[in-house]
Amino acid sequence: MSLRLSTVILPYRRWHEGARAAWVRAEQLGFHTAYTYDHLSWRSFRDGPWFGAVPTLTAAAAATDRLRLGTLVTSPNFRHPVTLAKELISLDDISGGRITLGIGAGGTGFDATALGQEPWTPRERADRLAEFVPLLDRLLTEDAVTSEGRFYSAHEARNIPGCVQRPRLPFAVAATGPRGLRLAARYGQAWVTTGDPKLYETGTPEQSVEALRGQLGKLSQACEAAGRDVAELDKVLLTGFTPDRNRPLESLDAFVEFAGRHQELGFTEIVIHWPIPDSDFAADDKVFERIAMEALAQLP
Predict the structure, then answer these.
(1) Residue 103 to residues 10, 144, 197, 246, 265: CA-CA distances in angstroms?
(2) What sign for the dihedral angle of Cα 251, 68, 177, 79?
(3) What is the SS3 string spanning the chain?
(4) 130-170 pLDDT per residue, tens
(5) Are 267 and 230 in contact (CB under 8 A)?
(6) In angstroms, rounded to a whole number, what is the distance separating the alpha carbons of residues 202 and 74?
(7) CB of 100 closer than 8 Å to CB of 169
(8) Residues contacting residue 32 through CB under 8 Å, at least 6 positions apart
């Protein structure tokens, strides 16, 4: 499968003060998908503007025609499957079937406590995701759902007419642990990783490649156990969190080398952050656009 190039546009700007223009430009540049983060606030952006993912994607759907749109990633930290399903079905309809749901267990950031709860442990997050994903799958594929769970329940929840995409919009499951990988193998149309976070500060790009190779191997094992061909899943790398950091965006050649190395591992989609000045995602706009328009042509 040929490599796809996508971008993630953080929702930190007002719609009419640069945000709309970025989504429109992403389509013009030929990106496969433009994602956004589904957080209530995030890291160094906490005390500045930050807008909601679903309204942002709704506006982006109205401003574009061909570009796929999605979240990287939605989590149970502040979402419930019943209300999320209704929003996703509406969003899929408005976009004409161009939505991908990136979904993961979430973390211990600001989302984890914004509703007044204590942060969940990794096990608790995994427990919730293991219940969240199957229920959301049912809500997006069945007209009416009743389910009583430990964490999430639905009582005669109606979701008519369902998704434009059939049987439902695709799930891109972010996971590196065994339970999350099992969810990706069973319910995912794609798998998402950011690499091994333990290598971010002191690791090398070579160590990162080996860690990703190991993750891909575990995904293959999970798919085999689920009776599924791992080739059916797209493998998505969200960049910026490996030891390479933002260096692949320093030049077209640097990106082509980075992308080729990860394509050889088996990745089918690479996601790069839309440039944000004075941040970890700062990049030269002209170089970024050259990468978007020219990089894939230089790969096998």
Answers:
(1) 16, 22, 18, 24, 23
(2) positive
(3) CCCEEEEECCCCCCHHHHHHHHHHHHHHHCCCEEEECCCCCCHHHCCCCCCCHHHHHHHHHHHCCCCEEEEEEECCCCCCHHHHHHHHHHHHHHHCCCEEEEECCCCCCHHHCCCCCCCCCHHHHHHHHHHHHHHHHHHHHCCEEEECCCCCCEEEEECCCCCCCCCCCCEEEECCCHHHHHHHHHHCCEEEECCCHHHCCCCCHHHHHHHHHHHHHHHHHHHHHCCCCHHHCEEEEECCCCCCCCHHHCCHHHHHHHHHHHHHHCCCEEEEECCCCCCCCCCCHHHHHHHHHHCHHHCC
(4) 999 999 999 999 999 999 999 999 999 999 999 999 999 99
(5) no
(6) 28
(7) yes
(8) 4, 5, 6, 68, 269
Report the chain's mean pLDDT, rounded to a whole number.
97
**What does the alpha-carbon distance between residue 24 and residue 26 come to, in Å, rounded to a whole number?**
5
275: which 2 tokens? Answer: 């440039």
**What would the pLDDT profile of 60-82 be if each residue is shown by its tens digit?**
999 999 999 999 999 999 999 99
Q: Is the pLDDT of residue 270 over 90?
A: yes
**73, 174 Cβ separation under 8 angstroms:** yes
In sequence order, the 6+-apart residues with CB closer than 8 A to the CB of 158 are 143, 144
- CB count in 10 Å sphere of residue 118: 8
Q: Which two tokens stand for residue 78?
A: 């502040």
d(CA 55, CA 60): 9
Burial class, 2, CB count within 10 angstroms (exposed 0-12 / middle 13-18 / buried 19+): exposed
